[in-house]
Batch of 4 targets.
Target 1
Amino acid sequence: MAAKKKTSRKRWSAEVTEHSDALSLEESVFKKRSARQIAESLKRSAEASKRRKGTPLQSAISMLNFDINLAGKNLSASRKRTLEKAKDELRELFEKGKE
């Protein structure tokens, strides 16, 4: 029974990632090596989205947090650092856009 529950969760998270009302994400965005590349992709997706509920920055960070939280304990320390750094990169990219 535990295996079935795990499968359901996996399907649920894939469904959220693929069909979220927040953003249409570039394929494999969270697998990019560079925090800057991840941030740039999320920024493009957030700004292009007509379905998001918050600001582009809020939506982009929300999707990034979703991926970090979903991976949980399976995320390596270096990968978590890269994804956390992507948050800082996002804030920087959006701040530059205001100028």
Target 2
Amino acid sequence: MRAHRVLVLIPHPDDEVVGCAAAIRRAIAAGTAVFGLYLTTGVPPRQALWPWQRRTYERRVTRRRAEAGAVAAALCITPAGFADRPCRTLKDHLAEALAEIEAALVDWRVDTVWVPAWEGAHQDHDVTNFLAAQLVGRVPVLEFAEYNFAGGVPRSHRFPHATGAETVLPLTGDEAVAKRALLALYRSERGNLAHVGTERESLRPLPRHDYAAPPHDGALFCERFHWVPFRHPRIDFEPAQRVRAVLAGFAG
């Protein structure tokens, strides 16, 4: 896992904390330079918000970006770029996002990429994992577990399926406290981060995922509330199968 210049692909501002904050701190302590590329604003499209929230859309984006900046400063990572696309739309900008990633590899002289796991947590996480897979053979790519619903229960920082190549980092007491403090900096997301554990982090070399198939059997984390009969802004109702079809079309 030793690298000199790591690019963390961040689908939403907060994934760098949820998935690998302690790993980032350990890497920096070992002399590694770490950069973060934010691929969406982390805020859903304006039309997905409640009608009374839509007029504050720009303010929400500005706030989330400011939170990301505060976290980057606390973690000592260098922001490598902030995309303006809303969350839940990354699949609609695959070529553009891949070009941004490839440019960051060159601009920041990156020798290793870290990316959220293919685990069905959120469509943007899975799309980012797919984009990172396009880099395999050019730079080493590690994926980090965030959360999933394998086995029908929420699982934090454990991959749906082990490959035997996992590196599990048990967090020390100080690291757990620091991670909770970083999560608290994302105040705009406090309602969505309650399930995040601070006991461990897990990374591994990116396996050859089948992006046409679901990450695991059964319901995915991102689909747990698709039974809700109205369009709640905090629920992404995009069928995961449709997202996978877009990825398959791009790969083809």
Target 3
Amino acid sequence: MTSRVAVSLAVLLLLLTLNAAAVPANAAGEYAKHFDALSKLSVAVAEAMPADQYGFRPHPESMNFGELMSHIATTNYQFCASLKDSSTPALPSPTAKDAVVKFLKNR
């Protein structure tokens, strides 16, 4: 998978995640409806990107791939933590592929 395809998928995941989280009425139910599929897709994208490309940045002012994947996982954790009144786990280094993939999997 090329870096551009992986970044495009990551951006799509982010937009879908933000869209699902933006639903105010019964947000938890709406979010849960899409969470499993989006979670599997984000893990697949994170696993497909080569470790040496986690620092890939499509534009100098944008997040690199690892930061974007960590951001997606953090958004999921924060949303779920707010429902359970708990805190989010510590964010891994965005350039450590194995740590980011584990972070995405440990929902």
Target 4
Amino acid sequence: MIRLASGSPRRRELLALLGAPFEVVPADVDERAADKPALAKAAAVARRGVVTLAADTLIELAGERIGKPADATGARTMLARLAGRTHAVRTEVALIDAAGRALRFGVRSAVTMKPADDTAIAAYVATGEPLDRAGAYAIQGGGAALVSAYAGCYANIVGLPLCHVFFALRRAGVAMPERPEPAFTRSFGFVCPAWRTAYAQGRLLRDGAEYFTATYALRATPM
């Protein structure tokens, strides 16, 4: 059994693609105050004999880290700042195995937003989707209309780098019925262009390492 230390519906859906049983145990952690948010969340709910998984996703723009908007006004401000620019989406992943050993790493993808369109931004914010989303958009939802292109692991942009997590869980002794790339394709309807890169990185995971999965030109957002 896996403990998922997250209340995020996106992470639940992504982890479920691997077919292994898990329980959702959200961690009561102030992500903004923690130096290593994912590790703090995993440690808060970890239990001996159980594998615990946590993740935290942020946007990095020109050296600044951007989290979730506080409200609709904050969402509009974030989206206006991102418009017409390329930013990194970084997900910190932390896993604590059944013996209490921790593995933490970061995975980055790149996203380029379309030029600023105040009307489109306002309409998107009005849907409510941008709230509780890093960077105030969901690439797998209505936010795709604001995205010009992306590069790297698509699942990472959604909130959980599936291939890297697959290998981390396998290292922790968790057997998974599904491999990430066919499961992802069935769910999203397209092949993630970064899966080979992600597989290569996942097989050699190191504690504290950072993995950038965008090793080729930006691709148009799948619609």
